[in-house]
Each structure stands twice: as C-alpha cells, then as structure tokens.
Design brief:
Blueprint (H helix, E strand, L loop, with lengths): L6 H8 L4 H22 L1 H13 L12 H29 L1 H20 L6 H33 L5 H33 L17 H10 L2 H6 L1 H6 L4 H7 L3 H12 L7 H8 L11 H30 L1 H7 L11 H34 L1 H20 L2 H5 L4 H16 L2 H7 L10 H26 L17 H19 L11 H5 L8 H7 L7
Helix pairs in contact: 2-6, 2-7, 3-8, 3-16, 4-5, 4-6, 4-21, 5-6, 5-8, 6-7, 6-21, 7-8, 7-16, 7-20, 11-12, 14-20, 14-21, 14-22, 16-17, 16-19, 17-19, 17-20, 17-22
Length: 537
Amino acid sequence: MVKEQLGVLNALDVAKTQLYHFTAIVIAGMGFFTDAYDLFCISLVTKLLGRIYYTDLNQPKPGTLPPNVAAAVNAVALCGTLAGQLFFGWLGDKLGRKKVYGITLVLMVLCSIASGLSFSDHPKGVITTLCFFRFWLGFGIGGDYPLSATIMSEYANKKTRGAFIAAVFAMQGFGILGGGIVALIVSTAFDHSFKAPAYSVDRAASLAPQADYVWRIILMVGALPAALTYYWRMKMPETARYTALVAKNAKQAAQDMSKVLQVDLEAEEEKLEKITQEKSNTFGLFTKQFARRHGLHLLGTTSTWFLLDIAFYSQNLFQKDIFSAIGWIPKAESMNAINEVYRIARAQTLIAMCSTVPGYWFTVFFIDYLGRFAIQLMGFFFMTVFMFALAIPYHHWTLKPNRIAFVVMYSFTFFFANFGPNATTFVVPAEIFPARLRSTCHGISAAAGKAGAIIGALGFLYAAQSKDPTKTDAGYPTGIGVKNSLIMLGVINFFGMLFTLLVPESKGKSLEELTGENEEEEGTEQQATSARTVPVW
C-alpha cells in the first residue's frame, strides 16, 4: 500500500524545469568535465613521456614507456578512482552529499597541479611522483561519480530526471574533447616556437628540451574548471531527500527547498517520523531485505558497468595504438616528439567531436522518451555489431584505401557506447536504491566499472601486441593482436547486453516509488517483486 509522499519531495518531483536545475547541471557537470579531462589526457602524453625519459639514441626508434611503467601510468588513476568511489560513496550517505562534495573537488584541483609538478628529471623520480599524485587525483575523481549522480537525481523532477543526470555525465564528452583541444594548442605552440627535426633525421635534436613542459602543462590545465566551480558547490544546499529521509530533519529540508523552489513548504515532521520508522526504510546494505529487494538490481548495475568499461576504456586509452596500427598516425621515427603529441591529439579530438560528444547528447535528448533499458540494450547491441564488423575483416581495414572507413566504423562504436550504456550505467544506480544507501550503491556500481576499466587498460596494453615478436613494442611479450583483441571486446559487449536484462526501467517514476520508501510495510514484498521486472514502458 502506497503512503502519501512528503510534500517537499513531491514538490521536487512535479517542479517545472527551472534555473536551479540548470545551475545544478553546470556545477555537477564541471566536476565531470574535469574528471574526464584528467583521466583521459594521460593517453595524449604517454608517447611523449617515453621519448623524454626512455629514448636510447642508439636505437632506430624513439623510446616508449616500458610495459610496467606504461601499465602504472595508465592504470594508477583508475585504481585511485575505484577506491574513491567506494569511500566517498559510503561517506556521502553517512555525512551528507554536500559536506563531501567540496572535499573531492579540492583533492582534484591540488593533485592535477601536483601531477604536472612531478619532481626530478630522472625517469624513476618523475614516474613515481606522477603515479603518486595521479592515484590521489583518481581518488578525488572517484568521489565525484556517486555524489554528482546522487545530487542531480535528488534535485531533479521525475519527468526529466534521466536527462538531467545524463547531462551531468555528458560533460565527460566535453572533458575528453577539451583535453584534445588543449593538447593541440600546447603542442602547436611549442612545435612552432621550438623547431625540431624528425627522429629519423636527427635523433638527439628531435626532442626539444622544452618538450618536458608540454605534458606538464596539459596535465595541470585540468585543475582550472574544477577550481572555478568550488564556490558554487559550497553554496548548494543539502538535497532534501538526504536531509529528510536520512538525516530525518523535515524542518531543514522544507526550509532549503522553499528557497530553491521559491514556494512555501510545510515541514511535516509527524509524517516523516512515520515514514522513517517503517521496517522497509531501516534495512542496511548487508541484510536479507536488501538482497531480496535490490540484490538483482545491484548485480545488474555492477555487471553492466564492469563489462562496459572493459571495452570503453581500452578503446579510449589506446586509440593512439589503434590509429598507429592502421597507419592513421605516422610512424614515430618520422616525427619529432612534440609533433607526435599533436598528431595523437588531432586524431582523438576528431573522434571525440564526431562520435563521443554527439553520443552523450543523444542520450540526454532521448533517455526520458525511450527509457534507460532500451537505450542500454540498443547501445550494447550496436557496440557488439561494430566491434565484430571491425575485427573479422581486420586486414581489409588496414589497407590504405580503407583506413578512413575504419575510423568511421570505430567512431560508431564510441557513438553507441555514449548513446547507450556509458550514460545509462551512470544514471540508473542513482535512481533505484533507497536514499540512505543511494550514494553507497552508486559508488559500488561505479567501482565495478573502474575494475573493468583497469582490466581493459592493462589487458589491452598487452593483448593488442602483435603475434610477431619482431613487431611488438619494446619490452612487451607477444600478444593476440589488435584483431583478436577487438573480437574479445565484441564478446564482452554481448554479455553486457545479457546482463542489462537485470536492470529495471526507472523512467517517469519518483525515486520513492522506485525504491519502495513510500510503501506500507505489508506492501514491501509485492513491491520488491514487481521492481525486478524489466522493462516498464
């Protein structure tokens, strides 16, 4: 049996789209812009780091990061992100969303700057300090996932909630694009100011001494957008759902939302007391009630995000390797160090502009019409199709006349990742779990995704190496090749499609209706059963 909802929560659910909605999107979204910039800009500078610190002038090719170093540089921020998602997700439910929100931002700003100031000019010193600061940068980024999603979810109305949460996440696309644009500007400026020949022409002169500033500037710029939004984050009031349902302070919730919505709201303390004392609103994460009511939901959100991120991060972090393999980026020895950064950034910027960013915004526009379930299933399906279409005739795509077509096909996999599970796996966990566990469960789901990202980043690094020992990168064992790696990613996407069947549809429902927080105790079992059905159109 459904109880009458608290007036303050109902007011949020039925509120028309207002300025405060867009303010919340920008404040939370700039954090995600920074997250994506910081996580993905490292892929723009790893080749440069190899040239600066690991070049042997007696070798015919410029230096690359040794396998263990490349693995550490690529994955350490992801490890920090995983830890941050679990820790700050839990803390957001214990202390409140707002209190923790500022901490993550400060951590991101300080560690972005510190990453660019990595000490020493000796390889071991630079890489060690870079990895140290990128771990803690990732830790701060990790906190932004559950907190941004939960805050936006709890502020939004039920009609356009999916679009608002997806819009926050869509700023990730602009972050990836921003990283490429910054790298283009910095590398172009330095390449024009400090002319250098290609490595094959003059090995020593191909690396201008000023190249060491290039990667540092690119990493440090990531601190700017986060720093600019700190003041506004601190001005945001705590969400009414946390204040009322978790902190149990009806008066404060009504006061805060009266200011936000600019209407008079009643505190309703007696009604809140009755709601929060129901047994269905008191169970914890590690209980039979949670397992019965939300266990399959949590399995669905964790498994789909895990499988998605294996494919998504291996694609994103190693675009440069795929582009090099098909000849879209010239051979390293035919360029100087700074020009190589420019070529990699140009390729990644084109992909971001033509497929990554549009994919995110297609989700924003259609998620509240098509629903989360349909978009996620469709996205995984087309990612599977395009991966196999790339992989099976892989030799065909490597031939010079077909390289542009390969890039177009490759772009479609990004488009359907973003107009698909990359956005919906972020949205759904912020909607289907109770307020007292919402941030924690979103953090767990996101952490599962980052575990997949680590597997994708490290696994693809080794797996994509050629089967021919003479064609592998320096220091790497032979792998299964790019073709077989792409086939593996296609299979992973197929399993993502299957696990999507565990994820419920949340379109058009209030958060309390989805979680059962406004159900009478005797209705709990019925609601728990019906909540597991997929999808609800």
